[in-house]
Specification:
Pfam families: FecCD. The chain is mostly helical. It contains 15 helices and no strands. The protein is about 80% helix and about 0% strand.
Length: about 350
Amino acid sequence: MSGRLLSGPLRAVAPAPPLVFGAACLLMLGMAGAAALSLGDYPIPLTELPRALWHGGDSNSAFVLHELRLPRLLTGLLAGAALGMAGAIAQSITRNPLGEPSLLGVSAGAAFAMVLCMAFASLPLPLMLACGTLGGLLAALLTFGIALRTRLEPLHLTLTGMSVNLFFLAAITLVLVSSQTEANGIYYWLSGSLANRTWSQVQMLWPWVVAGLALGVACARILDLLTLDEELLTSLGLRALPWRLLLGLTAVVLTAATVSATGPIAFVGLVAPHLVRFGLSHVGERTSHRALLPLSALVGACLVCGADLIAKWQEIPVGILCVLAGGPLLVRLIRRQEA
């Protein structure tokens, strides 16, 4: 009797599991954001944060918040959200649970373009960011162009992307060895960092993140279908090739813009969708892309912002922390799913 009652009106007003998961992520993100704005060499009490943010407060607090900490926090939030979404899209179009945007060659292509600019040109920051995004896009077009002969069959797309990625990584090493510039700063950037980020990175990232999220949610049903076998897609009458190209380019632009702004940050695009699937699987929720994409964005933002708190405390690149934490976390998730 009680089960029937719970399946009636009470169940209708109970919050959906994805909403609960999303609310928990927003809570963690808010806590990480408040800590990032408050803590540092110039501590600002939490009670003074609202006044300093909206009304300026004293000049020192206003400068630290608006020119140093807030751009860094927003860049990390947008970068994590973009990588989380891009990872979820890449895993769907390649039908590879271990897929991430770097498997399409995007990260290495964007990094190669940025390293070229750092080593041989003195460009303004907005133009350098645009070159990095263009480099990632060209690397992905090379991957898609080679894999197009097999109509972007997921296995061939993954193998082609890995080959393109290795090619550009080797090209980066060649540039660093042959250039006469100081390479320490470039090596630090290649580790992935949010240090010294400005409003230029925020202004470049937010339109891509908003557009990518809107397009991904609008195409959620298509992404659900793209995880099916090719024979089943053919029987349903779905032309998978144009959709793989469109959604793949969405993941490419999200990743390329992020790499240009922060340097390569590994494992976020790989781990964030798995954390969402793992969290929702415990409540028996089948993860559709309408929930997976925004939740992956939230989890990715939490991972990057949380890692940056420790990175800022220890003064190390955030990308290194993501690799150190992401590897064991992914192994643990895989083992628990197999159990």
